[in-house]
Amino acid sequence: MNGAESLIRSLIASGVDTCFTNPGTSEMHFVAALDHVPGMRSVLALFEGVATGAADGYYRMTGNPACTLLHLGPGLANGLANLHNAKKAGSGIVNIVGEHAESHLALDAPLKSDIQGLARPMSHWVHSATSAAEVGRDGAAAVTAARTAPGQIATLILPSDTAWSEGGPVVTAEPPAPRATVPSEAVVAAARALSGPRTLLLLGGQALTAANLDHAGRIAAKTGCALLSEWSNARLERGAGRVSIGRIPYPIDQALQVLEPFDRIVLVGARPPIGFFAYPGKPARLTRPDAEIIDLADWAADLDAVLDGLEQEAGAAGTTPLGLAEAAELPVPTGALTPETIGAALGATIPENAIVIDEAVTTGRSFFPVTAGAPPHSWINNRGGSIGYSLPVAIGCALACPDRKVLALSGDGSAMYTPQALWTMAREGLDVTVLIFANRSYQILRGELTNVGVQNPGPKALDMLSLDRPAIDWVGLAKSLGLEAYRVDEAGALTKAIETGLALDGPVLIEVVM
Amino acid sequence: MNGAESLIRSLIASGVDTCFTNPGTSEMHFVAALDHVPGMRSVLALFEGVATGAADGYYRMTGNPACTLLHLGPGLANGLANLHNAKKAGSGIVNIVGEHAESHLALDAPLKSDIQGLARPMSHWVHSATSAAEVGRDGAAAVTAARTAPGQIATLILPSDTAWSEGGPVVTAEPPAPRATVPSEAVVAAARALSGPRTLLLLGGQALTAANLDHAGRIAAKTGCALLSEWSNARLERGAGRVSIGRIPYPIDQALQVLEPFDRIVLVGARPPIGFFAYPGKPARLTRPDAEIIDLADWAADLDAVLDGLEQEAGAAGTTPLGLAEAAELPVPTGALTPETIGAALGATIPENAIVIDEAVTTGRSFFPVTAGAPPHSWINNRGGSIGYSLPVAIGCALACPDRKVLALSGDGSAMYTPQALWTMAREGLDVTVLIFANRSYQILRGELTNVGVQNPGPKALDMLSLDRPAIDWVGLAKSLGLEAYRVDEAGALTKAIETGLALDGPVLIEVVM
């Protein structure tokens, strides 16, 4: 058994059984070992950002890391943007990054680079294997790191000689440590602080499971406090019968307005609200300067226990949660495609147990309220802000949950960072319906020009935000990569196309011409 | 004048007048300033690896850096693979990477990351601007660094407040320092060492200009030494009437065989030959262990003077260069598409003054000899080994040399890393003919499996190297991004399609079905 095989066996023994790969020469022994070891599913991507984004989606739905297989420094580099998003979402991932054999590292080979240096900014844990005998142990340590709450990025660098030389023992990762508990006095004090509509319970991370939102809804019913989540959530459970929770808006002025009423904010798995960017003359912190922030529990803490405790301390046990969404039978919209009619089409079609991955950027800002009464579903946001995440994440979600329908909502600008994801969807026959909102511009930046104080942008500036020359034919692009695809320019047709896409088992792309 | 404007004016004053952009909110003041400052051409890319690769191509043809505009850490990360290639090719590039305003950096905003840490592995020079008043000076310093021989990667991180605050003076970069000279005693000794067919003059970098190859050809004629270049060259001048020079083969066994005869190797702008990767049981150094290596001049030295000096010292002045390629009127090939017939089609069609960018990987290994007698042209290789470089590099070449025809030769696997480049070609109406060799596999890795000692790879391993499920429709893909496109499966038709592509002024893609 060579090092590569001992590594794969250790990963499987540690519960990691899915690998998103884009290999090269230095990874060939790992690839060859896939045939000698049963139990590792290997999914090929044509670009590394697809592999890392898929691993992110996989973790969000399973709570268990997948691994990636990447080719030296440049291969890792291509995966970094979606590792950034995964890191900010608290997703656990084990990256296996091939490296030259030790004897080759002293030479300045073309593909030599500082892999550790590249890995560090987007990883919590980085290690270079030094011996084939230890590779199994290294793999198990990587899994242990990746499983550290809320989930971490672990990058194991694998010199090719540690893969091809005789390996050592198969090692199993430590069981995940229990999440940190929050002192009961803090919970008692926070429960007292939540009183009336000028207090806010701001939720994030594991606080957004259906059960925890039920706790929060009961706390709100009893104390009168408001509930909100952050703008971007790794995963939020919602839909009919669940407690419906709003999100702090992305646009800076709206965010300031929404948070202005609150004298006191209790954070459970959320961070003190700040602007996505700095804007001249506008505050970075979105809460009123005199507002009291009570940071009760960070995202790595045992939030189930915290919310249960808050409910008990608030005397809210047994009350009916506030904000339970009622099932809404929405009429099928007709007419021009606008953010509102698109939202209505989604509200009318989201099926029970769907996974919705939201990278709709400007078009999607109004989707949330109108879909609150759809059948129960999961809603996934980009917490890292690097666009090009939704199509790769959809792959990981679909592989993790083969019995659930996946809806990926993407702006056209965003989808062009990782269009290769479509090919992997076709190859794996994944049950994903992709909506591309083709407004043919970096529309968000038109608003941001104003927000950062640019008056009357000139033609060269606007040209850098325009994607209409040429207009991308998304139907042709999707078909070229093996997908079914449709183009719609009317709301009734969109509704029908979504239904058609969802009815099929394989991937479908719908170009929504704005 | 704000900081952004002072930066753009300083870049232009320093001779940098082309910017490959993929901006976001933190870069909006730079984008807005493009309308206030005449003289900066701004070219939009939909993925950052296209922008950095284009800047690489631009430098290879002009010897002058372009700049890129990238969005924070993840935007830079997406550009790193092609910065790696540019760095290994000795290309000078100025990266402008937006960053949060200083006041925002203390907060953990979604897009915050360690930009310096990400930049360092692929940059020679990294600096974070700290004051709007100094940004012009920082920009000039970046250009000075990028112009340091042979060409360096300079990354300037631009916090948004240094862009929007009142700027300082416009500053001009230092003129490039003269290249290092090589002591004449070393040249004299090397000239004496070159004698007979068991000595090799191995050339790289600036030694591969037409004039320097003439020197080399005369030295070979006089001394009887052999001439070779490295496998990958940043740019090689060749074709009818120029000294034809071979390249050390990529496959390890062939490379060892080609270098085996040589007792003595004189390096001029080249490095001691090593394998691209380490292979078990095979040497890393490709020269015979007892061969003498004379490292006369590295790639940053004044190679024009070195080769002129070698010619003088060898008494070769006035002799007719050995290996002058004769113009070859190649018959138009017919029949099945093989590496040989494709090479013949190229040999029959490469027009005078063309720029050929070679990322044909396995298919292209035989292209070189058969095209030696084509009209004079430039040949560009990937020196960094990170695939996905040819389409972006073609953009930079075409913009740098609007009067020259550009031929980009890419494997299908390689082209899928940066297909977004096609859109920028269409948008800019670039005169590029792209050939995609659709063998529907990572063909090179099938050979490498054997080279690294994997016997009888199993179905899972082979599946990770197969791109045929689904087969990518390259014609559909190219058309979806605004290009003319044709599919050919026969050598005569290929020849005709290349001629058609070259006759048009805009971009054309030809899918060559293998």
Automatic annotation (TrEMBL), chains A, B:
Biological process according to GO: small molecule metabolic process
Keywords carried by this UniProt record: Thiamine pyrophosphate, Transferase
Residues covered by the Thiamine pyrophosphate enzyme N-terminal TPP-binding domain: 1-106
PROSITE patterns: TPP_ENZYMES
Domain of life: Bacteria
A GO molecular-function descriptor: thiamine pyrophosphate binding
Protein name (Swiss-Prot/TrEMBL): Acetolactate synthase large subunit
Protein species of origin: Pseudooceanicola lipolyticus
